[in-house]
Amino acid sequence: MGLKTQLKKVFPKTLSNYGKSVNSIVPFAFSRNADVLQDIQEKYHYNGDFAEIYAHNKGCLIHKWHHYIPLYDRYCAPFRGRTIRFLEIGVSQGGSLQMWRKYFGNDAIIYGIDIDPNCEQLNGLAAQVRIGSQNDPEFLESVINEMGGIDIVSDDGSHHMKDIAATLKFLFPRLNNGGIYMVEDLHTAYWREFGGGYKSKISFFKIVADLINDMHHWYHANGLKHPEISQYCSGIHVHDSMTVLEKDKTHRPTHSQIE
């Protein structure tokens, strides 16, 4: 059985969403006979317990790029030991919800949403699961209200540019101060099937560029392109296929000289 056939069997929902672009991820697949933990440790010099949680996952299937693992720990470690509210967009087969539960512990309030009604069978296992679209504001509002707010969002949903943008614009203003918003699998920003393309005007990276300009609006006269986000965005971190936005109160810059 070829690798592409194996992947379709294991990840039928995920790969059907990728369409023809699945041909772009197959060459990056890690050998099933190789040591996942060793690969993460050696390539990324990371020995944290997030690597152990991922590499030794049992039960619900999980599918992640290896370089995400140390990034998860970098940005999420400050939230451990707290009763945080975590929302994952895109449940798939439930493995990532299981991973987040093991990482954050039993006190964390973890919800996952997915448009696939089959995901409802995962409700109550590692997290609460609600069925609905990430493009439905009323649905998103109902989930946030049920959670009692949100501290962390991980968008691993449709990966379509319009969906990512619409969800960010709705959820980011509702994110608690001090929270983070992670958008995954942004290689799709270069794929036309997802509304992307190298010079696509609706690529998520076009929004990121606008947000960077917005962050520096103090120094130019072009105003804010995305005020609903930029007024509260204190940091932007861009990694391979992942962008993390930090939310906190922003201040007019000031400087001083001290002798």
Which features does this protein show?
alpha/beta, 259 residues, Rossmann fold, 7-stranded mixed β-sheet
Structure, described:
With 259 residues, the chain is α/β, with parallel strands linked by helices. It has a domain at 74-247: Rossmann fold. Helix content is 36%, strand content 17%. It has 11 helices and 7 strands. The protein has helices spanning 3-10, 12-18, 22-25, 36-44, 49-55, 68-76, 95-104, 137-147, 161-171, 204-215, 227-230, and strands spanning 85-89, 109-114, 128-131, 150-155, 175-183, 233-239, 242-247. Strands 3-2-1-4-5-7-6 form a 7-stranded mixed beta sheet, with helices on both faces. Helix 4 runs antiparallel to helix 5. The chain starts with a helix and ends in a 12-residue tail after the last strand. The model is unreliable at 1-23 (pLDDT under 50).
How far apart lie the N and C ends? Answer: 71 Å
Q: Low-confidence stretches at least 5 residues in length (pLDDT < 50)?
A: 1-23
Given the helix and strand composition, which structural class is it? alpha/beta
Question: Largest beta sheet, briefly?
Answer: 7 strands, mixed
Give Rg in angstroms: 19 Å
- What is the N-to-C succession of helices and strands? HHHHHHEHEEHEHEHHEE
Q: What is the top-level CATH class of the domain at 74-247?
A: Alpha Beta
Mean pLDDT: 91
CATH architecture call of the domain at 74-247: 3-Layer(aba) Sandwich
- Count of helices? 11
What fraction, in percent, of the residue positions are helical?
Answer: 25-40%
Instruction: Write the CATH fold name of the domain at 74-247.
Output: Rossmann fold
For the record, what is the CATH homologous superfamily label of the domain at 74-247?
Vaccinia Virus protein VP39
Overall shape: it is globular
Percent of sequence in beta strands: 15-25%
- Assembly state: single chain
Strand order of the largest sheet: 3-2-1-4-5-7-6
